[in-house]
């Protein structure tokens, strides 16, 4: 939750250090403007889709690496 301090300050602290911030919430609001990307919806449905996409990209990368397409 971005309402309980001091934990709520962590995204801003990370942003100040150069991190990119992805915010996931139900209403899609970026109230404090700290997020670079806002994902609207339940984390239980969004996170598995992100992981599935990352795995897909990694499989393509490994295939290309093993066939010599990446050098």
Structure in words:
The chain is α+β, with helices and mostly antiparallel strands and 71 residues long. Helix content is 44%, strand content 11%. The protein contains 2 helices and 2 strands. It has helices spanning 10-16, 43-66; strands at 22-25, 37-40. A two-stranded parallel ribbon has the order 1-2. The mean pLDDT is 89.
Helical percentage? 40-55%
The average pLDDT score comes to: 89
Write down the secondary-structure element order. Answer: HEEH
Number of contiguous helices? 2
Order of adjacent strands in the largest pleated sheet: 1-2
Short structural summary:
This protein is an alpha+beta fold and 71 residues long. It is built from two helices and two strands. It has a two-stranded parallel sheet.
Q: What is the secondary structure topology, with strand pairs?
A:
Elements: H1 10-16, E1 22-25, E2 37-40, H2 43-66
Please supply descriptive tags for the structure shown above.
alpha+beta, 2 strands, about 70 residues, two-stranded parallel sheet, single chain, 2 helices
């Amino acid at each position: 939750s971005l309402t309980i301090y001091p934990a709520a300050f962590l995204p801003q602290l990370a942003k100040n250090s150069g991190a990119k911030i992805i915010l996931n919430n139900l209403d899609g609001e970026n109230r404090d403007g700290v997020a670079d990307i806002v994902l609207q919806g339940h984390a239980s449905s969004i996170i598995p889709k992100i992981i599935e996409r990352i795995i897909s990209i990694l499989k393509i990368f490994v295939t290309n690496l093993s066939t010599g397409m990446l050098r």
